[in-house]
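Board notes (copied after class):
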Amino acid sequence: MANIEHKDILDPNLHEPKGFIAASNNTTYVKNNVGVGYWTPAIQGVGTAATGTAYIADGAGQGTWTKTVTGLPTASAKEMLVADGAGNDTWQHPTIHGSSYNIKTTTPISVTYSNGRWVRVDELTRTDFSATAGTHPEMQSNTDGSLTYIGTLTRHFHIAATLSVGKETGGSTSHPVACALYHYDASEGTNEIIPHSEIRMSANSSVRASTAIHADIMMDTGDKLVIAVNGNLGTAGEVKIYTYYLFAMGMVGS
């Protein structure tokens, strides 16, 4: 018998690893940390698995390739991973919010043309409205009193508004004033009243009326919110705004 070192044996003449015959199909020989080898199920599908996936064992000797969480090191604080239902995901804040307000208790805002029709506050082209502290970067608080959503997800928004108004009707009798929320839909190019947001109250030149409005709608990128008033009810009169506050909170929804 020839004296040949095992390392010098040509490949066609090498025998299979110890235990090969008794090993189960689709298993591989692995050396552990104490130098002992054993047969264990092999990970299947490495050659065809998609980039960014990991093999997840099912506890029964099998497993599947599943997409892993990516982008965690660069995600912003308080963001969560949101799936789009098509196998993709993105890091997003679960809720966002924004607000706009103006306090004019001494010299009210005169809403020109409100004695004849609905007038949105942003039509007045004012630049003195402010955002309250904490407005989220995905909400744009505009100086004309409106709010614009500039995020990328479709979100379910809850809107809250408070308003204090007077009406130039003369005399001591109060007359109706209508208030509502307008929604500009960027994808449709429409600017309409949110139907369930319209309310009515009574005011005159010396008696102010105050109200709160709540509504909820779905909003996409570029959609806009603003309050509108109408003094052409009963006795027509121009509406004066003393306090204005608009708040919107958007949640992940569909």
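Comment from the instructor: Residues 99 and 247 are 4 Å apart (CA to CA). The chain has a mean pLDDT of 85.
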